[in-house]
Design brief:
Length: 258
């Protein structure tokens, strides 16, 4: 317990330092499909992400509101290409009277690229996201650590762990479910096209964030790409308050770099 408290304080300090450095630039972390990645937005550049999450089928005679996420991420640090940082914010609309009153969430990340320390060294990232502004409602306060390594033609494997606010990250019974594994595989499908990228990622936990996600993206240019994916939730009761497996969703994500 003491170790976890120290970790949380350390992540909080990192986030505060980043927000001071960027003054007003805020945004979502660079991600795979659903989970954070070890990637970092390039120094002095901005990334605009517009994500939509749509339920594919009616559940309990209602399809429910879609979730819209508008985010900006800025590269804020680059020390000799060995230590990099980004930070940003998301504006999320959920179609919910309570959550939509506090729609802004903050995030930040520090990372070392692959091979930056020495040849063969993996990429390592620590960060935090979903720092909302409404106490015990939107302040998920998720901190995480990730390690990633590219395995040649096999693609890149990432693994890590996260924990967050135990008063907000709950299962359907109101029991805390505020931690879990982060896993992913991603690869540029150069055999087909340099523009095609595929990924599978997973976030553990019986809270509403726990999910397996499968998708691909297509780069229309070096600055614009679109991702399409299917989201399979670990606990449908926690996400949509239903046991119906049709509660899974479909996501499209437009990514633009400046």
């Amino acid at each position: 317990m003491i170790f976890k408290m120290k970790l949380r304080k350390s992540f909080a300090v990192i986030v505060v330092i980043m927000l001071i450095l960027i003054n007003i630039v805020k945004a979502t972390p660079s991600t795979q499909i659903w989970i954070p990645s070890t990637d970092i937005q390039k120094f002095k550049t901005l990334h605009l992400g517009i994500d939509n999450y749509l339920r594919l089928y009616n559940v309990d005679n209602s399809r429910g509101a879609a979730i819209y996420d508008f985010g900006l991420t800025g590269g804020i640090l680059n020390i000799k290409n060995k230590l990099q940082a980004e930070a940003g914010f998301d504006y999320m609309y959920m179609g919910d009277f309570y959550y939509d009153k506090s729609p802004v969430y903050f995030n930040a990340k520090l990372a070392t690229p692959e091979d930056s320390i020495c040849r063969g060294f993996p990429s390592i990232a620590i960060g935090a996201y979903n720092f909302g502004t409404k106490n015990n409602l939107t302040n998920y306060n998720i901190a995480y650590g990730l390690v990633a390594k590219t395995m040649g033609k096999l693609g890149r494997i990432s693994a890590g762990y996260y924990f967050g606010n135990e008063k907000v990250l709950l299962d359907e019974n109101g029991t805390k479910s505020n931690s879990g594994l982060l896993l992913s595989w991603d690869r540029q499908m150069t055999e087909i096209s340099d523009k095609l990228w595929m990924a599978v990622d997973y976030q553990g936990g019986k809270n509403y964030l726990g999910a397996l996600n499968i998708g691909f993206s297509w780069a229309f240019s070096d600055k614009v790409s679109v991702l399409i994916a299917y989201d399979i939730y670990n606990n449908h009761n926690a996400y949509y308050n239903t046991k119906d497996k049709n509660a899974n969703s479909f996501t499209t994500q437009l990514d633009i770099n400046f």
